[in-house]
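Homework help board

Subject: predicted structure for assignment chain

Our instructor gave us this sequence and asked us to write out the predicted structure in token form, then describe one feature. I got the tokens but I'm not sure how to describe them. Can anyone check?
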Amino acid sequence: MNAATAGRAETYYARRAALGPVDPRATAPGPSPATTNAGCGPAAEFGAPVTGPAGRELAAAVAELLEPGPFLALGNGDAETNNVLVRAGGDPDARLIDFEFAGYGHALHDAVPLHLPGPGWLTVAAPGPAAEYRRALARGVPEAEDDRRYGLGLAAACLWYALVRVERLPALAARPPGDDSRAQLVSILEAAAGVAHGALPHLAGWARRTAELLRRRWPDADRDLGALPPYTPRRH
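My token output:
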């Protein structure tokens, strides 16, 4: 879908406008000018401010997501595994659903769920689907074959997702010990750091240090997440 819709934003929004007023910036997945410091306040309150080189890399990540260039494509906005319908028996004919957050933005927002756990999961390990996504994207966006450009876009999208989840820190701190959402946030931060360490090393280092801080503060979240099978469900 990202490959097929790249470069066609004008056609999309012309059709949207025929149904009523639409603000392309407001419907785009990812950061907006008003949300470029997502998660920074709660992180600072927990002793993990995004400052110095990490702060400068955050600005670069936001700039990449706001101005995606050739990676501008129609995204689902919520492409988690629970929004993909598959048939029994391994039939490859799948259906992506739940488009209420769809809009034109950086295509690699849709790749984040292949690297980071979403709302329903504690871990994600999907190198096969992640590689296939990149190959499929390159059919419509040749720049996806450029390791530097793809790496920066993916790092920015993954770290942005992690920062948005960090906004929930005060709520998670108020939950009882053993709540899986705490370990999930640790997993998100560590997975984002793993994706981004080459392209945004200082911001990735911040994510890793924040995960270590939370492991110390929340002993119940100090778990060996690497020992869990891929897509281990989070208990609600």
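Reply (TA_rk): Your tokens look well-formed. For the description, you could write something like this. The mean pLDDT is 93. That's the kind of observation they're looking for.
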